[in-house]
Design goal:
The structure holds two protein chains of two kinds.
Chain A lengths: L16 H4 L1 H5 L10 E13 L5 E13 L3 E5 L6 H8 L7 E6 L2 E2 L4 H5 L2 E4 L11 H10 L5 H14 L15 H12 L6 E5 L7 H16 L3 E6 L2 H7 L2 E6 L2 E6 L1 H8 L5 E6 L2 E5 L3 H9 L11
Parallel strand pairs in A: 3-8, 3-9, 6-7, 7-8
Antiparallel strand pairs in A: 1-2, 1-4, 4-5, 9-10, 11-12
Helix pairs in contact in A: 5-6, 10-11
Chain B lengths: L4 H19 L1 H27 L1 E4 L2 E4 H32 L2 H5 L6 H29 L7 H26 L7 H14 L11 H9 L1 H14 L7 H24 L2
Antiparallel strand pairs in B: 1-2
Helix pairs in contact in B: 1-5, 2-3, 2-5, 3-5, 3-6, 3-9, 5-6, 5-10, 6-9, 6-10, 9-10
Classes of the chains: A alpha/beta, B mainly alpha.
Chain lengths: ~300, ~260
């Protein structure tokens, strides 16, 4: 349940963790020992058998931890292994090797108990269009053994928070893309999860809706929920994540707070970019620069096979 | 009462389906019950008036009774297959509810059991309705209502297994039409829904017996019309049931879980 002291002394210096345990931070205690580990992924490897006969190693021996009240981002291009990692974290795909535990529960040995603590919002629209907006949440709650009455209360509160209360009795199909997205995140929260797993939650959303979602996620984080966020939006990662792992080709190349990543990889105060012939922009380096430096700008990432 | 975890999961899935059914009852009343009733009317009354009585297994039986029993088998076949093939394809591929349920405390295995059991429930209720009409019109003895139900459930499960296999292996929803025309319709036409297969050439009879619907119909007619019991129908059904249920679940796992 708690991080063991000998595993990773680096955790001590993780910026952001002091926020999770302010008293410990003030007393300069090992706050990493006091903040429960919500997700631990250890040397996770996932190989697929391809239809052509070969195998594809989508994820190669990655390890990371997400503490309660922390947001960890997996930042990487399409085909980097983000969604595969998520499918292993939820226990849906069996790992080829390595282990995944949620609040100390092995997702493969005890899938039901582990998933009871898990809220998942996948990249695709997985809303159950046979149910209206509110019924949908109540129905989903029953999968977590939440009684209908309790489910209704939670659904009402969530719809209010997500600005969907007026749509409570609408058909899902009548919602806009942004509303569906919000509903899907709301649905992931109905079981009050300890760990929230979000795969590209804001793809295709307009800036206003994105802000609203970010605020909700930040609120969840400060309430102690651990968040695993997969994204390829730099701004999102920079804003939301206490720590970011940059993943490409199924490996985590580096992992740190956004600020530290920028400091370590971009040895400069200012980046100059020629955006149009003759027009040069000067700006401080950002996460995108680190990302591009580490992952490269090649377009053939999707075609990686072995 | 707290059910064992996995039974609870299956029940959850089944209840989800039942809830959808209940909410759009008017739609399902038409799709589930209209079709067999139309067949009953057309073949039972229409063709029945033309044919009169048949002599099968040294028994005199009205064509209407014969074909009513056939429609029980046909209902089980169509309702089980279509709900599990087209229905589950929509749920699995378009609505993605299999994968969204299977990241909650419900496992994919339970989702698939729930799917199969629901399909079987729905098809056997439809078969019961046909039986009820047959009883009401005096074609079957009332006890058939009790005896047909377990047989209808088991055979619906079998055809649901066929449907789910097809759905798991179809790349697009259009591909479900292949087995529909190559397996389901031939069974419907050649396994003895409308006529005794004893009239077919011997080779076709063997083919008919190899397909599961013939055994279903043989047992249905034993229970409803008192036709002689053909014991080999039982193992044929059991083997098909086992193979299709196991195979459908494996195929769906192979499709969804990488």
């Amino acid at each position: 349940m708690y991080a063991t002291p000998w595993i990773d002394l680096r955790i001590c210096r993780r910026p952001g963790l002091e926020r999770l345990h302010p008293v410990a931070a003030v007393l300069e205690l090992r706050y990493d020992l006091m903040v429960p580990v919500a997700l631990r992924v250890e040397r996770l490897t996932k190989r697929y058998r391809l239809e052509s006969g070969g195998t594809l190693e989508a994820v190669s021996s990655i390890s990371f931890e997400v503490h309660a009240g922390e947001c960890f981002g997996l930042l990487g291009p399409n085909g980097a292994g983000k969604s595969t990692t998520i499918n292993c974290v939820t226990g849906f795909y069996p790992a080829s090797s390595g282990s995944v535990s949620v609040c100390g529960l092995d997702v493969y040995a005890e899938p039901k108990r582990a998933r009871q603590l898990l809220g998942v919002c996948s990249q695709e629209d997985t809303l159950d269009s046979d149910f209206r907006v509110s019924d949908q949440l109540v129905r989903y709650a029953t999968y977590f053994r939440i009684p209908t009455e309790e489910g209704k209360l939670r659904a009402r509160a969530l719809l209010e928070r997500f600005g969907l209360e007026e749509k409570a009795n609408e058909q899902v199909e009548s919602l806009s893309g942004g509303m569906k997205r919000r509903l899907q995140v709301a649905r992931a929260l109905i079981s009050n999860p300890k760990l929230l797993v979000l795969d590209e939650p804001t793809t295709g959303l307009d800036p206003g809706v994105r802000r609203v979602l970010w605020e909700i996620l930040m609120h969840e984080r400060s309430a102690g929920t651990a968040i695993l966020l997969c994204t390829h939006y730099m701004e999102e990662a920079e804003r939301l994540c206490d720590r970011v792992g940059i993943i490409t080709g199924g490996r985590i190349l580096d992992e740190d707070s956004p600020r530290e990543l920028i400091r370590r990889h971009m040895d400069m105060d200012e980046v100059q970019e020629e955006v149009r012939p003759g027009v040069v922009w000067k700006r401080p380096p950002n996460l995108e620069d680190v990302y591009l430096k580490l992952t490269g700008t090649r377009l053939d990432e999707d075609a990686r096979e072995s | 009462m707290r059910l064992p975890d996995s039974l609870w999961g299956v029940r959850c899935v089944w209840l989800r389906y039942f809830d959808v059914f209940r909410k759009s009852l008017r739609f399902y009343l038409v799709t589930t019950f209209c079709e067999p009733i139309l067949y009953l009317l057309a073949f039972g009354l229409g063709v029945g008036a033309l044919v009169g009585t048949l002599k099968v297994h040294d028994m005199q039986v009205s064509y209407r009774s014969f074909v009513f029993a056939g429609i029980i088998g046909q209902t089980v076949l169509f309702q089980g297959f279509f709900e599990a093939s087209f229905g589950s394809f929509v749920r699995m591929y378009y609505q993605r509810i299999f994968s969204s349920m299977a990241v909650t405390p419900i496992t994919l295995s339970e989702v698939l059991w729930g799917e199969l059991l629901w399909d079987a429930t729905k098809a056997s209720v439809a078969a019961e309705v046909v039986t009820l009409i047959g009883v009401a019109l005096g074609n079957f003895p009332p006890v058939a209502l009790l005896t047909v139900l377990p047989l209808a459930f088991v055979s619906s499960l079998l055809f649901a297994g066929l449907g789910l296999t097809v759905s798991a292996r179809a790349k697009s929803i259009d591909e479900i039409s292949y087995p529909q025309y190559l397996i389901v319709f031939p069974m419907f036409l050649f396994c003895g829904v409308f006529y005794p297969i004893e009239g077919l050439p011997v080779v076709l009879q063997w083919v008919a017996w190899a397909l599961p619907l013939t055994s279903v119909l043989s047992l249905v007619r034993t229970l409803t019309l008192g036709f002689p019991f053909q014991p080999w129908a039982v193992p044929i059904l059991a083997v098909w049931l086992l193979v299709l249920v196991v195979f459908s679940r494996r195929s769906m796992f192979a499709r969804l879980v990488k």
